[in-house]
Amino acid sequence: QLQLIESEGGLVQAGGSLTLSCAASGRTFSTYAMGWFRQAPRKEREFVGIVLWTRGTTYYADSVKGRFTISRDNAENTAYLQMNSLKPEDTAVYYCAARLPSLKRTYDDESDYAYWGQGTQVTVSS
How many angstroms separate the Cα of 36 from the Cα of each of 47, 70, 126? Predict the structure, then answer.
């Protein structure tokens, strides 16, 4: 079992930055890849990015590549989503999620994620 608790989001002006954290309970945190998803109003939840369990390898959706950075601190059982150059279209509820090791080389399938955070609202004003 893994419980994920996200930090509070917030309201940010366009062009600004915000960092979300995702604290995990449980001693097996390092076993999981940690992903981030988001859901904008009236849209389906979408993949943002993921940090794998070894070497900290990351993958990102094209919409955030170059602006968002995902990292993890296994000693602190925490994953991070650093968001820079925010745009109004980044407004969404953001979720962290834990994914068990898998041979799949794609990371955007929600069904592959076993545990989810509660979600936190990020609003970017223009």
Answer: 6, 8, 23
Please give the pLDDT value at position 27.
67
Query: What is the model's pLDDT at position 26?
Result: 77
Angle at 105 between CA 22 and CA 55, to 5 degrees: 55
**DSSP code string of 18-52:** EEEEEEE-STTGGGSEEEEEEE-TTS--EEEEEE-
Average pLDDT over residues 5-9: 97
Contact 96, 42 (CB under 8 A): no
Residue 111 gets which letter from DSSP? G
Please answer whether residues 124 and 86 qualify as being in contact, where contact means their C-beta atoms are separated by less than 8 angstroms.
yes
Lookup result for tokens 């990371």: 107
What CA–CA distances, in Å, run from 12 to 30, 39, 125?
31, 17, 6
* Count of other CB atoms within 10 angstroms of residue 93: 18
Q: What is the pLDDT of residues 15-72, one digit of tens each?
A: 999 999 999 997 688 889 999 999 999 999 999 999 997 778 999 999 999 999 999 9
